[in-house]
């Protein structure tokens, strides 16, 4: 019996991730590198641009079901999004919506390895991310929008808000999810507040397992490609959630109000606070019903 080959999902580039998630032979890339669709702003600042602007859009099937994938290349500009990269993702989601309105049940998978908006294209990037968020909300009424966060960049900035809008959110242990990245927090608040070099602390607060245990994501998968693909298929089969995570904004706002910024936060304290509050909310909901 042949030995099953282990493929580490985070080690693949964006194009490989999209190709490997789709059913064999179904991969079809839209606006690929030979279309030379790249940011016009980077070269003006003597920054080497990339012919697909760091985003791979692919169309195909997962488990025989039509799917569009938008995969961000974390190795290009830290996975940041500008005008072109953001427009590609928003456009792909809008095409998937058009498919559904035409009777083709196309779901979307977003592979999110990104630091958020590209600083060189700040306003244009922010506008593009807003379009992505709007497109996610529109599409998720018809078919699931599934986000995947893996290493080494993780998902931060405006795209972390987009991740929160997804129907389902998957993370590997290597993934990280937060509104602001560790380096940004350290820069603005000081190393005493947040040491960006303290890896156990960083992953303990924003890593995949912690985010899963505290209810911010739906599954913490293994690092193997097959484990990630199986998780995508599983949540896709569950269909549209009865309640999206973003509909529970009052719950998450209440969590913010329980925080005391004067107290030292670590992984154990964060987990205890979030899981306790979630349990109390569930109990209260049960009592009201």
Total beta strands: 7
Radius of gyration: 19 Å
CATH topology: 2-enoyl-CoA Hydratase, Chain A, domain 1
SSE succession: HEEEHEHEHEHHHEHHH
Shape: globular
- Please write the CATH class name: Alpha Beta
Q: Report the β-strand fraction as a percent range.
A: 5-15%
Within CATH, the superfamily carries the name 2-enoyl-CoA Hydratase, Chain A, domain 1
Mean pLDDT: 89
Number of helices: 10
Looking at the overall shape, the CATH architecture is Alpha-Beta Complex
The percentage helix is: 40-55%
Strand order of the largest sheet: 1-2-3-4-5-6-7
Oligomer: single chain
Poorly predicted sequence stretches spanning 5 or more consecutive residues = 281-289
Largest sheet: 7 strands, mixed
Distance from first to last alpha carbon? 54 Å
Count up the domains: 1
3D architecture notes:
With 289 residues, the chain is of the alpha/beta class. The chain has one domain (9-247): Alpha-Beta Complex (2-enoyl-CoA Hydratase, Chain A, domain 1). 41% of the residues lie in helices and 13% in strands. Strands 1-2-3-4-5-6-7 form a seven-stranded mixed sheet, sandwiched between helices. The N and C termini lie far apart (54 Å).
């Amino acid at each position: 019996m042949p030995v099953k080959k282990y493929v580490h999902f985070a080690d693949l580039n964006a194009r490989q991730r999209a190709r490997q998630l789709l059913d064999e032979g179904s991969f079809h890339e839209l606006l690929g590198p030979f279309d030379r669709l790249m940011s016009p702003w980077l070269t003006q600042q003597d920054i080497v641009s990339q012919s697909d602007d760091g985003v791979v859009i692919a169309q195909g099937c997962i488990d025989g079901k039509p799917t569009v994938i938008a995969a961000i290349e974390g190795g290009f500009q830290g996975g940041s999004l500008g005008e072109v990269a953001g427009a590609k993702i928003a456009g792909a989601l809008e095409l998937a919506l058009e498919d559904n309105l035409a009777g083709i049940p196309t779901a979307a998978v977003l592979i999110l390895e990104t630091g958020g908006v590209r600083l060189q294209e700040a306003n244009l990037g922010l506008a593009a991310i807003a379009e992505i968020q709007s497109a996610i909300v529109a599409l998720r009424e018809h078919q699931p929008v599934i986000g995947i966060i893996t290493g080494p960049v993780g998902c931060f900035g405006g795209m972390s808000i987009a991740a929160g809008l997804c129907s389902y959110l998957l993370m590997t242990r290597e993934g990280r999810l937060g509104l602001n990245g560790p380096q940004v927090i350290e820069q603005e608040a000081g190393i005493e507040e947040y040491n960006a070099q303290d890896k156990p602390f960083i992953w303990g607060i924003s890593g995949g397992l912690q985010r899963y245990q505290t209810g911010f994501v739906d599954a913490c998968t293994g690092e193997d490609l097959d484990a990630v693909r199986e998780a995508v298929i599983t949540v896709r089969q569950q269909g549209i959630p009865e309640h999206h995570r973003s509909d529970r904004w009052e719950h998450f706002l209440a969590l913010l109000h329980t925080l005391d910024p004067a107290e030292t936060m670590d992984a154990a304290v964060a987990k205890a606070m979030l899981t306790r509050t979630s349990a109390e909310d569930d109990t209260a909901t049960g009592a009201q019903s």
